[in-house]
Design a protein that fits this description.
homodimer; about 500 residues; alpha/beta; Rossmann fold; six-stranded parallel beta sheet; 20 helices
Chain lengths: ~500, ~500
C-alpha cells in the first residue's frame, strides 16, 4: 500500500515536472534506435517490429506521461519509406499519436559510415577503453571520411528532422540521446537560439588522456557539439567531471566552473549534470513473476546445485565475462569443498556478432567455459551452464533464483542488470559489483566491490558472498532495494524535466 | 660567453641548493638500475660495466656536484657478490668515493618476480595504458605472489640498505626513483620519522579510471607508499593532478588539497610537485660534434634525399612507431611530388626483446617498413631506412641532420629525444610532437602538435613541417632551444633540492 501510494506520488510529481517543462508542447526525443523499426510486407505495407534495449525501455516510460515526438534513425529500407511518407507509419501503427514516430533518414551508405565505422567500432570502443592502444585505433583517411560524410551527415539529418517537427515553435523542448548524436544540438541551436536542448550520454565518459589520443577535429567537434545544449547529462558525477576536464583541455574559448558544474562559452551556459538511469522495478517484477518466468526459474533451480551464481550480459568485451569465469575457476581451485555444490548460470545475449573483436571474444569465453567444465565437472555436475540467446524473461528468472549475482564490467555507463537483480531477487542475492560500473556509485553500500582486472579479488568476493550469513544477505539486499525503488526510472526522468523546466523560468 | 656565464651561475646555484639541503651529509639515491653493474672475471675479481639509460645519465649529474651514496638493485651475480663485500667494489672502481655504490640485494628469483612480473610487464604497461583491457592484465594468484614476495620484498631490501647507509643520521636525505620503488619510503619513514624523503616517477601517471581496474591491495599500497615521502615528484602537472585524484579516490584517510597540491594524512604532509626532467644540452652537443658523429652525419646526409625525417626511439609499443610509419605512408600517398625527394631515417634501439608484446610489435614495424619501401621505393631511393642498434652517437648524428623530427609517442613520461633533437639540430629541424608526451607541456609553443592515434593529422603535420619556410623553422627552433637551455638537467635537480631544503628549515 505504502509502495503504491509512493508510486502514485512519484507519478504525480513526474507529471507536474513534465507540465512545467512542456506546457502544451510535445517533447521531442531523438535517439539512434527507435521504439519501432519497419519491414516491408509482401503487400507493400509497412510491418512494425518493436525494439528492445535499455534506452528504448527507459524512454518508453516518458511516453506514458507526456505526448512525445520520437525521432529515430532510419535503419531499414522500411524505415526509409516511413520517413518519406508519414501516412504509412500511421497506417501501420494506428492513429494513437501519444508517441509520434518520425525518422531521420540518410542514404544507407551514409548511415553505414556513421554507425558501423564511427559510432560502434570507434566511439563505443574509445569510451569503454577497449582498445589495444599501441595498435588501434588507426585514424586514417577512411575514418575521417566516415566522420565527415557519415557521422556529421547523420547528425545534420537529425537536426533537420527535429527542426521540421519543431516548426512554428521558437522554444521547442528537445532531448537528444547518446553517442550517435553528439553533434545534433549545434545546427538546432543555430536555427532556434531559444530552444531548450539537452543531451544525455548513456555510456562512460573517459578521462582526457583517452580523448587526447584521437584526432583533434573529432574530439573538438564532440565537445563543442555538446556545449550547444543547455544541459549535458551523464550517468555519474565522475563522467560529468571528466567531461568538464575535457572541455577545459580542448575548448580554449570555454570557461569551466567546476564548483557550479557548468561551462560558459560566448555568454551561453551549459549545465553539466549526472542523472543515473534506472529501471521500473514494478514492471521488472511483473515480467519475473509471470507464470512462464516462474516455471523457468523452477527448472533452473532444479538443474542447479546448492548455491547459484548468475550473470546476465550482452556478449560484449567491456562486460569482462572472461575474467568472471577465470575468477570462478580460481574459486573452484582454491575451495575444493565448493566443487559439486555450486552452479554458475551465465545468460549471454548475442551482440554485434559482425564485429571481429566480438567474435574473437566470444570464442575466448567459450574456451574458458569448456576448460572449466572439463577440469572440474563430474557426472551430474556441470560447473558452468551457458545460455546464449536473447530471452529477457529467462534472464530475470535466473536473477530471481541467484545466491550471488556477478556484475564485473571493465567499465559500464550504468549497468541495469545490477538493478534488475536487486528488484527481482527471491533469495536475497548478494551483488558482486565492479567499482567501474556506473551503478557502483549508487550501490557501493550494499554490494561487494571488485576491481575488474582483479581475478583473485573477484574470486575472494564470490567466496565471501557464498559464505555470507542469511541475515546479512537480507540486510544488504533490502538496502539496495530501497535505493532502486527510490531512484527509479521515474526519478531519472523527473530530475531532468525539473532541471530543464528551471531553465525555462 | 653569455652561455658560459649562465652555466657557471647555474652550477653555483645548484651547489648552493645542494649545500642547503645536505650540509655535510651524503645524498642517498636509490634506483633500480645503477651506474655500474658487475660481472665476475676469470680471476674472481669484479669487472664493472657502465650502464646507460636516461635515468643513469640524469643522476650522473648529481654526483658531479655532491657526494652521493647510490643504491641500486643487484641485477647480476657479480652485483650480489659486490653487495656482500663492499671491498670488492672499491677494488673494482678505485678509491674515489664521490659516488659510493651500494646494492640492495635479494635472491635472483625474488628480483625476477619484482622486475619481470611486476615492474616491467605490469606497472609499465599499466602506466603507459598499453593493454588490451578486455583481456589483459589478468591479476591472478601468480601476480599477487610476485607482488608480495617479489616487489614488496625488493622494496624492503632497498629500505634496509638505505637505513644501513643512513646509520647514525636521524635526518638522512633520500631520493627514491621510479616505478620499481613505490614502496621503499614507508619502512624508511617508520625507522627514521625525521628523514627527508622524496620520490620521483619518471613514467606517466595515468588517471584513476586506469588504477581502478587493478587489484585494490596493489593500488592502495602504491598510493600509501608514496605518501610516506615528503615530496612526490612527477614529470608534468597533469601527472601530479592524476596522483592527487588517485589519493582522493583510494586513500580515504587522506585529505587532498588541490590548490596547494599536497596531501595530509595523520598530520603528515606530502607535497606533490612536477619537475620536468631534461638533458645537459652542452654534453649532448659534445657527443654530436665529435669527429666520429660528424663523419656519420655526413654519411647519413649523403645517403638521403632533399629532406630528411628522423625518429629515434627504443623499439617500444608506447613510442607509437607503427603509426609514425603509417603517417609517412599516407604522406607519400597523398603527395606524389614528395616521392623520391624525402628520406625517413628511423634509429630504433632494441628493447625488452624477451617480452612477447615487444617481439610482436617489432615484427609489425618491420612489416610496415617493408611494405612502404616495396610500394614507393624505386631504383636509388629507399623511402625508409631502419637502423636497429644501440648507437647513441649515430642517433644524435641523425637528429643533427634532420629537417623534421617525429616524436609521436602514445604516451610518454617526458621524452628526452625531443630535447636532444632541439639541442643538436644543425638544420633548423621542425619538431612534430605528440600532445601526450610529457615534453609537450614545455614545448607546445615551438612544436607541431599531433594526437598519437591520428595518422591523418600526423601526415598533415609532416607535410606542414616539410613545407615550412626556413625563417619559421629557425624561429621555432630558437624558441625551443631557449627553453631547453633554461630548463635543463641542472634546473631539474636544483628545483628538487630547493624544495627539499625548504622542508629542512
Amino acid at each position: 500500500m505504502a509502495a503504491q501510494r509512493d508510486m502514485a506520488t512519484a507519478d504525480a510529481e513526474l507529471a507536474a515536472a513534465a507540465h512545467a517543462l512542456l506546457g502544451d508542447r510535445r517533447l521531442i526525443i531523438a535517439t539512434n534506435r527507435g521504439p519501432v523499426t519497419f519491414t516491408t510486407a509482401a503487400d507493400g505495407s509497412l510491418r512494425p517490429r518493436r525494439g528492445s534495449g535499455g534506452l528504448v525501455t527507459a524512454l518508453g516510460h516518458v511516453s506514458q506521461r507526456v505526448p512525445i515526438t520520437w525521432i529515430a534513425a532510419a535503419m531499414s529500407e522500411g524505415d526509409r519509406r516511413a520517413a518519406a511518407d508519414a501516412r504509412l507509419v500511421r497506417r501501420a501503427l494506428g492513429d494513437d499519436e501519444t508517441v509520434r514516430l518520425r525518422f531521420a533518414s540518410v542514404e544507407r551508405s551514409v548511415y553505414e559510415q556513421a554507425y558501423n565505422v564511427i559510432a560502434n567500432p570507434f566511439l563505443w570502443f574509445l569510451q569503454h577503453q577497449m582498445w589495444n592502444l599501441p595498435e588501434r585505433p588507426v585514424i586514417d583517411a577512411a575514418t575521417m571520411r566516415a566522420w565527415d560524410r557519415g557521422y556529421v551527415a547523420l547528425n545534420d539529418a537529425f537536426a533537420r528532422e527535429v527542426l521540421s517537427q519543431a516548426r512554428g515553435d521558437r522554444e521547442p523542448r528537445i532531448m537528444l540521446h547518446d553517442y550517435h548524436l553528439y553533434l545534433a544540438a549545434e545546427p538546432i541551436r543555430r536555427a532556434r537560439p531559444r530552444a531548450i536542448l539537452s543531451h544525455f550520454t548513456h555510456i562512460p565518459w573517459p578521462p582526457s588522456s583517452i580523448w587526447q589520443t584521437i584526432a583533434p577535429p573529432i574530439r573538438e567537434a564532440i565537445a563543442r557539439g555538446l556545449l550547444a545544449n543547455n544541459v549535458v547529462g551523464f550517468q555519474t558525477a565522475r563522467y560529468a567531471h571528466n567531461f568538464l576536464r575535457m572541455v577545459e583541455t580542448f575548448v580554449p574559448d570555454a570557461t569551466v566552473d567546476y564548483d557550479a558544474s557548468l561551462v560558459k562559452r560566448r555568454r551561453f551556459v551549459t549545465h553539466v549534470r549526472s542523472y543515473p538511469i534506472s529501471i521500473d522495478p514494478e514492471a521488472t517484477r511483473r515480467v519475473a513473476s509471470s507464470r512462464a518466468a516462474r516455471r523457468r526459474a523452477d527448472q533452473l533451480l532444479g538443474g542447479s546445485r546448492e548455491q547459484v551464481i548468475v550473470r546476465v550480459d550482452r556478449l560484449e568485451p567491456s562486460k569482462n565475462i572472461l575474467r568472471g569465469f577465470l575468477a570462478f575457476e580460481t574459486l573452484l581451485q582454491r575451495n575444493a569443498r565448493l566443487r559439486g555444490r555450486i552452479s554458475f548460470l551465465a545468460f549471454l545475449v548475442p551482440s554485434r556478432t559482425g564485429l571481429r573483436e566480438y567474435g574473437h571474444y566470444g570464442r575466448e569465453v567459450q574456451n574458458a567455459v569448456d576448460r572449466i567444465n572439463a577440469r572440474y565437472g563430474r557426472a551430474g555436475w556441470r560447473p558452468v551452464q551457458l545460455f546464449y540467446e536473447n530471452d529477457y524473461a529467462q534472464a530475470l528468472a535466473g536473477l530471481s533464483i541467484a545466491d550471488v549475482v556477478l556484475v564485473n564490467p571493465l567499465v559500464d555507463g550504468m549497468n541495469l542488470v545490477a538493478k534488475e537483480a536487486v528488484a527481482v531477487s527471491a533469495r536475497d542475492a548478494v551483488l558482486v559489483l565492479s567499482e567501474t560500473a556506473g551503478a557502483f556509485d549508487q550501490m557501493a553500500d550494499g554490494a561487494l566491490a571488485v576491481a575488474p582486472a582483479d581475478v583473485v579479488g573477484t574470486a575472494d568476493a564470490l567466496a565471501t558472498a557464498l559464505a555470507m550469513p542469511r541475515e546479512e544477505r537480507a540486510r544488504r539486499l533490502a538496502k539496495l532495494r530501497r535505493g532502486v525503488e527510490r531512484e527509479d526510472i521515474t526519478w531519472w526522468l523527473r530530475r531532468q524535466f525539473e532541471d530543464l523546466a528551471e531553465l525555462v523560468r
